[in-house]
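Posting for a labmate who doesn't have an account.
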Amino acid sequence: MSHSYKTIARRGVEEFIVNKSRFIGYASPVETEEEAQKFIEEIKIKHKDATHNVSAYVIGQDSNVQRFNDDGEPSGTAGIPALEVLKKEEIRNAAIVITRYFGGVKLGGGGLIRAYTKGAKIAIESSIIVVMGEFNLVSLELQYTAYGRIENYFIENGYTAEKIEFKDDVRIEMFVRKDLYGAFISDMMDMTSGDIIYRIIEEKFLPEKDGVRWRE
């Protein structure tokens, strides 16, 4: 299994017109095939008067579930091109729907492929592409005398605590990238002269953009 994967962080929508046909591309993050189908059905209801609502999705960190639907367009001209965009961009856990309102001018096989490919691309581009990386949620317990040094370290290295409690000691919970965990704990030990209690609460995939933890 991959230790990281690309996905989209939020929904996106964009549209364009080709030879009087209106195309609207939608994209949404999904975790399961059920969520993907629910999203597709939502768009189909929203555009129940459309000529076609072509869909595709990829589910799983290793892209083990891949589906598409031409929704009445000629085989190979709509759903497959949309799915290929997701695969080429290596986007996982995402669903896209390209809605078409026919404008009276036939596009031909090649024209349809180009249109649905563009619809998928602009849908993805209108959302936010992120990399889901592996993180450890870490619990730290340290003395007040070391907190100033630790706080400066967090600021200098771009860490943000999820929770801080000031009790008999300072208790901190924060996410640390799994591949940086060893170095992080080594630094914590150095700055507290070993007077620190630490443990991993859970492991979780979280979004990053340009190497930085992404938050909505």
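Reply:
Got it, the structure tokens are right above this. The chain has a mean pLDDT of 93.
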